[in-house]
What does this fold into?
Amino acid sequence: MAFINSNSVKTTIVKEVVEGTVPTTGNRLELPRKQGSALPSVNGGEVTSDTIRPGLNANGSRRGNQSVSVPIELNAITADCVDLLLESALGGTFDTDVLKAGSVGPTFSHITELTSTEFLITSGIAITDFTLTAEAAGAVTMSFSATGQKQVKAATVAGTLTNVSVPDTAYEYQGAEVLNVTAAGSTALNYSNLAMNIAAPKNPRNVLSSNTPKGMTASGLRASTLTLTVYRETGVDYAALFNGEIQPFSFELGLPTYGRKFTLHGNASVPQDDTQDDMMITITVTGAYVTSEATSLKIEKL
It folds into this structure.
């Protein structure tokens, strides 16, 4: 037996055609990992007995319905794997290079390659939370939380999946590549950082006669927020600019013909002063549906 170094572990994802079923054809997309990042972990759904045994001893527990926690941490890039994660997070698919938040998004399978003959395959995965964070003079990061329905161990990956690597041109974005930040129609402000979050909780459909769920169901609303930190400058009426009505807020990540544009329609909070070396202002925009776009949030391929 040989030890397995965590930095040698490879991860890939595959878009599912049937929810919860690992495809045997299609693209197997490379999913980059950060050093030391966590892998999918199984929750056995243990049911603890409350039966008292002799001598005040407990009666143990039994494993119940399985669920899988799938954390994904990335330095932000433009790649097919990221587009699939965004589709799952927003509950939609790209249509003519536009992805709108909706109610039905794809599920996917996650393949952890421990060695060439040892795999952990998680199926029926849906993104439940996504955060994009950008900081001036720093990295742009993406963090996803997801829930999977089942994980199995395998010696091979069945089928004829096509391996798709992240292209060499998919460089990791920095704050300088967060472009054209537009807030309530203004492009004149200066920002130190931003953070977008999409929370789309989902629960398993647990059924009798099975220890795996019959798919996932949305739990409540999708909550989208965008937090902006702005340098306070003279001559700007921030309260009038961020008036609390539904307004568009957008930013671009990357370059034309290559990056992605994020647009959130929503209501800005009352601007709050933040005392740092410079005076700053922080606002949080809460997504709101607009009829003209038939959504509150969209992502466009540039």
